[in-house]
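Two proteins were folded this term; both appear here.
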Amino acid sequence: MGVEEIPKETLLEMYKKMHKIRTYEETLAKWYYEGKTPLFDISAGPIPGELHLSPGQESAAVGMCIHLKDEDAVIGTHRAHHFAIAKGVDLKRMTAEIFGKATGLSGGKGGHMHLFDASKNFSCSGIVGASFPQAVGVGIAAKLKGENYVAVAVGGDGAANQGTFHEALNLAALWKLPVIFLIEDNGWAISVPKDKSTAVAKNSERAKAYGIPGVSVDGADVIAVYEVAKEAVERARRGEGPSLIEVRVYRLRGHFEGDPQAYRPKEDFELAKEKDPLLNFEKLLLEKGITTEEELNRIKEENEKEVQEIIDFAVKSPYPEPEEALKGVFAGGE
């Protein structure tokens, strides 16, 4: 399937979401550093704590989620804003959550690594490798209920070395569950390069051990991601079982904001710029005559306006009342 075979409205929707993700995260980063400079203080500013952003990885989220429905589940990682946006999570409430506000998805208690939106069947976790068994659980529910919704488990190349990954693949394959395992391979598990931690060159090769399809795709090309994701989703809906997709993405920022990235060679930074999926997609749409610069500029302006409204909502929202700290908390004891 070539780009010419995809409807223009679908292509522009994909571009709009990729640009929105980039605009949103770049704006969020500016707010994150408020109060944290000149001496970086992770506890200071309107967004205290860690923040993991996804510039360079937008294609993995948009190429997959464009095929999903609200009833399909996506379980993300600690780096999940791009999947949340691609899945249609309420961005005002999500941003309020990141700012720790009462209007957030979880009343400000979850923060950016624990986003949850039941209306869109989206969740994420700061626990590396947690998404895989959770998605299998959703797949079991779908099969028992006789419904054709699917579950997407997102993980990084470091998470693919967790035991949960292999246990989940085995069970999903054994029971032919409608689960898609999507590995975002950005070449790094925090600061450890993949060739120092992983015995296989491509995580997609691990699919062979479980008798399921596995494919590795270049995340610099969102159309390529779109194509393999479409096949995996259709396979799952037909009841033919799980698939494993490795999307090779290229990290434009550090593992976390404030990461000095001293471990990364200069060549890795240059490759990430060259492989920027948003710029590559924009170039493709213009070269193929699918759209015009004027049309793309309108999309950009709309996104920028919307992101500003989202940030304004979060900033102006109230913090939770002190007594809220004791609500929604589970405690053991006699």
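Next, the second protein.
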Amino acid sequence: MPINDPISIQFPRRGRGQLSPPDEYATLRERPGLVRSALPNGSTVWLVARHEDVRTVLTDPRISASPLHPGFPTIGRNGTVPPPDQIPGWFVAYDPPEHTRFRKALIPEFTVRRVAELRPAIQRIVDSCIDAMLAGGTTADLVSAYALPVPSLVICELLGVPRSDRELFESRTRVLVTFTSSDDEREAATKDLLLYIAKLIAMKQRFPGRDLISRLLKAGVLTPKEISGVALLLLIAGHETTANNIALGAVMLLLNRQWIHTPGVVEEVLRYLSVADRVALRVALEDVEIGGQLIRAGEGIVPLGAAANHDEGTFDRACEFDPSRSARHHVAFGYGVHQCLGQNLVRIEMETVFECLFRRIPTLELDTAVEDLPFKYDGVLFGLHALPVRW
């Protein structure tokens, strides 16, 4: 099968104000087998677009999430998963049984019961951000005033980080998830975060608190260096992804106000937007057949989460935003052993964020046309750089 256009891995989102997945994803799903495509760096990968095939890729033990294996895909500088020897504890880059060791240590921290204990803190954070917005007048940038600070402060609460240090995490994380950041900028941002986390861990060793880092230190299953990598992963994955879902979700609800108070709105926002479309990079460890296509050992694979979540064979009227549907089988959190550990926390955050925002500011509306919003086409995660609103 011929190789596609070298930049086809970065199909632009079009239509519906750039909020829906690329039109080309439907074509990928309709083609038999899989589609071979070239990355910007010249290497080739298999694109996986159908829901069933994506879930198969994410659960087959012959397919690896480790960048240490030859052929592992690289999508730009910030699309690269750091090797384990660079950041011990970045466990999403591990395969079982090493990945299992980290996951077992962290599962108790993200159960429905443990996450529910954070609900009062989440409510206080949300209310304080809305209070500040209302005190500032009748306009705001919903990204900087709400979508970014809420998950950032929640992660600070989870890890036991002083709130005064929030700006450090936000500024350094923005560097790491932006395609246009230079290698030097990315390296400096990573060093800053790891240095801070190391100091935080040292403080928790002397003065334990009621937080995730203190509990992991007490359990003794992970080393301080591994905990440092885990904390960095949670900071980046836990606040940047959620912030994008909050901002884009607010746009979806402002455009579809009839769904604001529907119980299934969070799941539908997650499914429809699929902000982490291309993060689950994989490589075949041995020959494997997916969707009728033979993938050879050493060939890279890119499961397209947004394509899977808009598969008409799985979701009726998949191109429509409809929170009344049952969408819990989406793959916005991944699937299989690498499925996002923090999904319970994300759900509670998003539920609280949307409920409070539209209850306390019922006249909220966009302060610019959707087509003019500054979408994040320069990052590994889809989102918004800013969201002007008024009330």
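The radius of gyration is 20 Å. Residues 1-8 have pLDDT under 50 and may be disordered. These notes refer to the second protein only.
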